[in-house]
Amino acid sequence: MSLLFLMQSLLWGLHMLLNEDIVNGLQEALEERKNKGPHASFLLVQVGEQKFGLPMSQVIEVLESRRWNPLPVNRPNILGVVNLRGVVFTIYHLASLLGKGGMHEAQSGQGCIIVVTDGRRRFGLWVENMLHVQDFPINELHALNERQLLVTHLCVVEQESILMMDIERVA
Amino acid sequence: MNSRKLNETLLIVEDDADMRDAILESLQGLGCSLFACANAEDALSFARENPCFAVFSDYRMPGMNGIEFCRRLKMDMPRINFVVLTGFADKQTVLDAFRVGIDDLLEKPEDLVRLRDKADAFVRARIEELNKEQQEMIVLRQVFCEEANDILRDLDTYIFKLEEVPPQPEVVDVLFRKAHTLKGSAAAFPGTEKLSMVTHAYENLLQSLRKGKLKPSQALTHVLLQGADVIKSLVSDFEEGRERAVNLQPFVEALNRWTEGQVGAHTQNQQPAPTPSQTPAPTPAVNVTAELIVPESVTPAPARVPEDDGIAWVEQPENLVTKSISEVAAVPSSVAAEVPSGAQPMTAYSQAVKASEGAPKEEEDDGLFVSIEKLNSFMELSGELVVLKNAYHAVVKQVLKFELPQEQKQRLEEMNQSLDKISEQIQGQIMDVRKVQLKVAFQKFPRIVRQVSHDLQKQVRLEMTGTELGVDKSIAKALSSALVHVVRNAADHGIEMPEVRISRNKPECGVVRIHSNQIADSIVITIDDDGAGIDPEQIKKKALEKGLITRDTMMNMPAHAAIDLIFLPGFSTAEKITSVSGRGVGMDVVRTEISKLGGTCSIESNAGLGTRLSIVLPVPKTVLVENTLLTESSGHQIVVPLVSISKITPIKDLILSKVDGRMTCQHEGVTIPLGDYRSFIDSPLKGSAMEKVDFAPDALVLIISHKEHALALVVDRVVDQLEAVVRPFDNVVEKLLGFKGTSLLDSEHVAFVLDAESLVGAAYAA
C-alpha cells in the first residue's frame, strides 16, 4: 500500500512536469494493477519444453555468456565456480537439478547464469534459455503437494502451465 | 510517555499554590521526579543538593524573580534547562530572560499543554545525553583498562629487577612512573576509589624507595609483588564491573608502615651489602633469574588466623586465591626478618645506581591496541591486493607480447616489480603485527618459581633463553597457561631439597631452563631441570595403583612409555596434595593445550640427572597468502603450495612400475603411488590404474610430501609461480577432498588449491 501511495504521489508530481496523456496512461496501469490484487514477480526460464519461474525476490542478477571454472572433482548438479567481482561462488545446472537433462550439454561461456540467494547462501543457476520477468496474481498460484520437489506452485496462463520454484529447496 | 525513568528532578518554582498544583498535575507521568518550590531561594538550595535537569519557574515571585533565579542558577549549572512562565511577558522581560540564558518563555496559563511537551522534550534529551555520556564512559573505561593492563603487564618483571646487582635506578623510576600514571588515570573514573587508594599508597612506597628512604630487599620485593597483585585484581574487577565488599584499609596501612620505615627497618644494615667484586657476574645467556635463598635457620612462618574484616584478594597468575590481610601485610616482615637483605643503605644504593652504566631503560610502548578482528580484516585486504597484483601480472604478461616501445615495456616491468615489493612488505608487516614475544608470555614464570621455591623451601633458579622469539598470539597464550604446570612440576617434583642435592654432589641450587627456538616452520620449546629425574618404575606403580594401567601392561611397558603416562588425566606421583601440585591435573592439560594447536610434547628423563620436556608447535597459518606453483592437470588449474613439494621431475626421468595394478615410482629408495590428482581421490586404492603410456611424455611429476608419506602427482604442465590468496570454498561446495579452497587468477579464472594433507591422506587411506 505504501508503494502505491508513493507511486500516486509521484504521479501527482509528474502531472506538473509531463504530458497529461502519459501520466494518465500510467495512472490507468496503476489502477489496473491495484484492481488485480496482490502479485508476485517471477523470472521465467525455459528448460526443455517446460517454463519455470524463479521468484524475483530471490534473484540478485543475471550474468550472460559468463565462463565458469569446472570443479576438479565432480559433484552432482554442480557445474563449477565463477568469480564475480572477487567473490567465488558455485554454479548449479538448473536442468540437471530439475531432472530435465545432463550437465554435458552446458558449455562454459554460453547461456545465462542467474545469481540467486536463499537468504543463507548465494549461488548461480545456469540456464540455456532465459525468457522474461512476469507478474502473476498470487491467487492464481496453485500450491503443489509434493513438498520435496524444487517446484512448489503451478500457474496456468493461456493454457500453458508454468512451474514456480523455491530457491530454498536447492540442496 | 518515556519508557525509561530518569533519576533526575524537574524543578517547578511557582508562588501561586493553585498554579503550582496545576503545573504538577500537568507534568505527571513524564518519567522523572518532580519537585515544587514556592520561591526561588528554596529552589536554589534544592538544585544545589539534588541532581536537576530542568527548571520551570514563574517570573514574578516574592523575593527573587524568575530571571534573577535563572542567572544565579546558571552560574552553578550552566547546562540546566530553564523555562520561565509568565503572564506578563513584555518585550523587556523577554530580552532580559534570554540574556541570562533561559531556554524558553511560556505564557501561563494557556501554555500548560506546551509546558508538558517542553518537559517531555527535556526528559528525552536528557536521557539521550546520559546515554551518550554512558557510552563515552564505557569507551573511556575500556581505554583506561587497556592502558592499566599495559602498565601492569611487566610490573612483576621490574619488581624482580630491584633485586639485581648492581642495582639499576631506572627500574625504580619505571615502577614509580607506572604507579603514578595508574593512580592519575584511575582518579578520573568513579568506582575506582579502592584502586586510587591502593595505588596512592603503592606510589608512596616507591617514592620512599626512589628517595633512598628504603633499600631494595627480598622482603620489599615481596611487599611490592603483593601490592601489584592487589592492584591487578582491582583493575580486573573494574574492567568486569565487579565490586567486592573488601576492606583494603589494613592493607594500605601496612603499605604506609613500610613507606614510613616502620616495617622491615630492623633488617636494614644487618649485613653489609655485597660489593660488586663479591657479586658473581651474571651469566650472559640468562635473561631472567628468580632466586630465593632461604638460609637453613629459616623456619616457616606460623599459620595465621584470617580476620573477618581484613580479607584481601591476591590474584595469582593462574588463579584467584584469598589471603588474610594479616598474612599479606605480615609476610614481608617475616621474610625481612628471616632473610638477610642486601643491606645497602639507600644513599649508597642511590649512588651505586647513579654510577651504574648501561642500565636498561623502560621499554617504551607507544603502540596502539588493535583488535584481532581488525588485524584479520587488514590481512584480508592485503590478500585482495595480492589478487590484484596477480591479475596485473597476467595483464602485463599479455600486453608485453604486443609491439610496444622499449621505454613503455621497461616502465611496465618496473611497475610490476614495485607492486611485487610493496605487496610483499605489506604482507610481512601485517604478519609481524600479530606476533608477540615469548618473554611477554613467560614473564610470570620467575614469580612462580620464586613462590614454589619459597613454599617448598627449595633453592631453584629459572633461566630463560630465546624469549625474544616472536610467535603468534594464540601460541603465546597457550604456552603461557600450559607451561605453568610444567614449571611448577619441575620445581616441585624435579628439583630436590638442598640437603639431598648436596648429598648427591649437585649444587645446592637447582636450575630450571626454558629454551625457545624456531626451526623452519616449527616452534620448539624445551624445559629442562637438573633434578632427580623420573623413575619409570615409580610411575608404573602409581599408574597401577590409580587403575590407569593393568598389571600385564605394566610388566611389558618400556621405560619411555611409562614416563609418557604422566600425561594421563588424573596422574600424579605427589604423595600429598599441596598448593603446588599433587592434584593430578597438569601434564594432561599441557598435552591437550599443545595438541589443540597441532603440536606435540615428549619427555625424556635420566634418573638422578634431570628431565627434559620438549614441545614442538607448528607455526600457525595466520596467512592467507601461500607461495605456490600454478599447474594444469586435465584441463583444471591446480595450485600446489610450494611447502608441500619436495621435488619436481619430468615423468620420462622416472622408472615407473605397477604394483597391485597401480602405478608407482621410486622416490629416495621408497616406492610411492603415482598418478594425477583424480586417481588419488576417485579411487580408494593407491595410485593410478593408468599405464605409463597414458601420461603425456612431457608431463611433470611433483613429489608431494606430508609427514612421513609422499606421492607422485602427475601434472600436464607447470604454468608459473604464484602468490596465491587461498579462500575457503563457499557454503555450497563447503569441502572438496584433496583441495582446501580456491584462488583467483584474474577476473575470470579460478584455480583450485591442493591440500597436501588431504590428498596424501586419501592416497594412503586403507
Structure in a nutshell:
The complex is a heterodimer of chains A (171) and B (766). Chain A is of the alpha+beta class. Chain A has helices at residues 2-17, 20-36, 94-97, and strands at 39-47, 50-55, 59-64, 69-70, 78-84, 87-93, 112-117, 122-127, 129-137, 142-143, 151-157, 160-165.
Which architecture of the largest domain in chain A would the CATH scheme give at its second level? Beta Barrel
| Rg of chain B computed from alpha carbons, rounded to a whole number of angstroms | 37 Å
- Average of pLDDT of chain A: 82
**Within the largest sheet of chain B, what's the order of strands?**
17-21-22-20-19-18
Largest sheet of chain A: 6 strands, mixed
- Can you tell me the CATH class of the largest domain in chain A? Mainly Beta
Classification by helices and strands of chain B: alpha/beta
Question: In terms of per-residue confidence, which ranges of chain A show pLDDT below 50 for 5 or more consecutive residues?
Answer: none
Rg over CA atoms of chain A: 19 Å
In terms of DSSP E residues, the strand content of chain B is 15-25%
Approximate helicity band of chain B: 40-55%
The overall pLDDT average of chain B reads: 77
Low-confidence stretches of chain B: 265-364, 575-585
Shape of chain A: globular
What's the total helix number of chain B?
24
Strand element count of chain A? 12
What does this structure look like?
The complex is a heterodimer of chains A (171) and B (766). Chain A has 171 residues and is α+β, with helices and mostly antiparallel strands. Chain A has three helices and twelve strands. Chain A is 22% helix and 43% strand. Chain A has a six-stranded mixed beta sheet with strand order 9-1-2-12-11-10, with no helix packed on it. In chain A, strands 3-7-8-6-5-4 form a six-stranded mixed beta sheet. In chain A, strand 11 and strand 12 form a beta hairpin. By secondary structure, chain B is of the alpha/beta class. In chain B, 43% of the residues lie in helices and 21% in strands. Chain B has 24 helices and 25 strands. In chain B, the strands form six sheets. In chain B, strands 17-21-22-20-19-18 form a six-stranded mixed beta sheet. In chain B, a hairpin with a 2-residue loop joins strand 11 (510-519) and strand 12. The A-B interface holds A 67, 69-73, 75, 78, 81-83, 86, 88-90, 120-123 and B 384, 387, 633-638, 677-678, 681-682, 727, 730-733, 736-739, 742, 744, 747-750, 752.
